[in-house]
Amino acid sequence: MYKRYCPKCGKETDYDIEQCTNCGTAVEKLEYVKTHDIEHKGLRYAGFWIRLLASFIDDIVLLAFIFTVEYLVGIENIFIGIIFPVLLYYAYFESSTKQGTLGKQVVGIKVIDGSGSRI
Description:
By secondary structure, the protein is an alpha+beta fold. It folds into two domains: 3-41, no CATH class; 48-107, no CATH class. It is built from three helices and four strands, in the order ββββααα. It has helices at 48-73, 78-95, 102-107; strands at 3-5, 12-14, 32-35, 38-41. Helix 1 (48-73) crosses helix 2. The radius of gyration is 19 Å and the shape is elongated. The model is unreliable at 29-39 (pLDDT under 50).
């Protein structure tokens, strides 16, 4: 289910309600966010700093995993040891029902396609 935000107080609300549960403002007056010539009602982009924090968390998780596997198994091939696990990590988590990597989940970012659905 999509989320949208009250234009008055900014509280996240369910997509199918008509009034903000926090301040009572009608939520059908939400502004549109234009993305790649597709308009989404009530969806907001994550800003630079929150994305940077999510990336930092993902880097810590990936580094811990990669160093542990390389220490235990001794993989020296850069593709099998680093590139392949990173590709699998992002592909799996961003297309899963959680809609984001562990870092994105921690900071509350969801990955969506052009229509607002999960990829």
